[in-house]
Amino acid sequence: MHSPTAEVSGNSKDPPKVIASIYVIAASLYIYISDYLLTWAPGSSPPSLGGQTWRGWIFVLVTGLLLYGALRRWSAHLRRAQHSLMLTQFALDNAVEAVYQFDRQGRILYANRTACASLGIPIARMKQKTVFDLEPGLTAEEWGNRWQRRMDGSALKIESAHLTADGGLRPVELSGSVISFGEESLDFTFALDLTERNRAADALLQREARFRRAVEEAPIPIMIHAEDGSILSLSRTWTELTGYTKEELSTLAEWTKRAYGPRRAEVEDHIRETYGFTAGKHEGEFTIRCHDGSERFWEFTSVALGSLPDGTRVAISMAHDSTEQERAESSLREKSEFLGAVIACSPVPIIATDADGTVIIWSPSAERVFGWTAAETVGRMLPTITEHGLDDYISLRARVLAGETLNGVEVERQKKNGDSFTARLSASPLRDAQDLVIGIMMSVEDITEEKASEEKIRNLNRELESRVKERTAELEAANKELEAFSYSVSHDLRAPLRAVNGFAKILLEDHGSQLDEEGIRIAGVIVQSARDMGRLIDDLLALSRAGRTQLSLAKVDMEGLARAAFAELTAPSAPSAIDFQMGKIPGTVGDASLLRQVWRNLLANAIKFSSRQAHPAITVQGWLAEEECVYSIQDNGAGFDMKYSENLFGAFQRLHTTREFEGTGVGLAIVKRIVERHGGRVWAESKPGQGATFYFTLRREDE
Amino acid sequence: MEVHVAHVVDILLVEDNPRDAELIERAIKQHNIANPIHVIEDGAEALDFLFCRGRYSNRSFYQKPKVIFMDLRLPKVSGLEVLREAKADPRTASIPIVIVTSSREDPDISTAYKLGVNSYIVKPVEIDAFFEVMSRLGLYWILVNQPPQ
Question: Alpha-carbon distance A544 to A537, whole Å?
């Protein structure tokens, strides 16, 4: 059989007509000729067309017509068959699949349009190829196998690849069969291009992979599980949060056993219902046990997710781990309770209001102090503001709502019984999570008593001050009196003294000639005694002044003072007689005139005692100690026995008889009093026959 | 009793302490100053003398002493008061008044000068110095100083 052509029917020649016509003509001719021939014997005249000939012609005509009819029917039938074949051919040629016809040797007898297009090989070249060209790697043995199997009737589906024109491989699924026509058999192979299918499959796989990845990498625990108890997918978060590994959670049963323990039955019931959820359903909070034994709170939402190919229903469950939230909430509760306890036990009323002034918190101490109970105040406006204090309250409240914290502001408030009182207010703004001010927290302390105490203290202080003033005045008065007294005493004492002195002198001057030696001596004693008394009075006055006068403090140049004092003391006598040594001595702060006296007295002392020596020497030194200045006056005089020096600085104490050294013994007492009034101290060191050193300390200049 | 006083009193000594008065007199006389000295013992009498009244009503304003040595502490009327009155009255203002007193107190000194005292002497404590000063005073005011006419 030759390959059918793609020609569409449309026979211009009409075979039936032609054949019939030829028959008729041929038959007619034959009849004519045969008749002629028959009748024409050798030598006879040509026959005439007899009647038998006409019967022959009619016979031929009729049969010719019959033949024509039959041929036409047959032709039509043939044409129909042809059309059918052409349609089939067309269908085959343009089939979705590539269709090939191979012979036993593998030669391509036919390849449809799709095949050519699919591989990019034109039909002409296709016919030159064999199946081995198409399918690289196909062995003859394999081909034989295939052929045989197909012949046996199995409609094999083989996945293979066809080589395209440009050297690529097109994945195909080969199916078909071998058709035998008597001795001949032909292979009809359908090659389904798998490229699209493969691509679709890949895309599907990829989508699946993406989905899987999405599930696995989700930041929340997600599980895809099936009715048969298998876990199809488990997000990483699931295992991370619970501490179980994927291997440990191989099935739902494993999960429920580990996570729920004895409660698993109940949970498993829940899980079974999920396969029927048509929409996402929030299942509530479940407490799960983690690998390490700790508990977490998970809120589950599940929805059905279709079925597996085998019909097993699948569901996806997602969990919201509210453990932290729970912990935060319970911590918040704790803190709240703690705060509540603090507020409750605070002795100072604690009140909180919202931004409008509605009371939110009213502590027990507020109840106690103000009189309103919490029930009477919470949820209502603050009842504690007085009419008088309203403006103040409004402005303060505005300030706190603006973010200011008030501390210890005195305000007026009122109690339930109408009494108004002074309170100390501390208030701070309450803020929400967005840091907006939503209310005010305040403590309001009744300071009526405190104020009363303050007033009392103020009064006491005032009293004290006035008392102090009084006393000071009294003291000043007493001082003044004393001063007046000493002044008057000294002057009043001087008058008779002058008289004694004066008249004794007159006696000696005018009547001395009438006195004998003894008389003169006695008069002398009188004069001397009067003189002594005068000196005593002076010393006493000085001592009294030293103790009384107000110190006028200023920086004092001690070096200058000492030199001046020495100059004063030695001016009368020859100054060079005494070897006076003085280095640099520090200055101090004090009363210059009094300190001059100190130098005078000490230097006078030194001069007095060293003047007996052959080479009298006085050394003055001064230096800075830690918190004071120290000065020393050393003489090389007679010195004294420390044993008797206890009262060296006492008034009128003398360590030498008047015969040895004159003096009233007040000098050192004056020194002591002045130095001590300056906050310093005096002392002396000596050894009999080895001179004496007197020390005194005064404040440092820089203090 | 009217006291008959020599018309001319060159030195008026107003001193309440008689012993001091005696010593002062003696001191003044040391330089052979023989001018008449009159001693008055209290401030009131001093004013009487100055203003020629009371016991001294027979004195005249024209008989001015050459100098008045006056203590501040006087009975009845104080020295400063006498000074004030004396210097306030034109009839007596020109008489030189020398305060001779034990007070070294500043208020006394400045008040005295404000009132117009001619000199302020503090009695030396020491007797020798006392004599010395007093005699010098006498010498100065009687012999050296020119009294007003």
Answer: 10
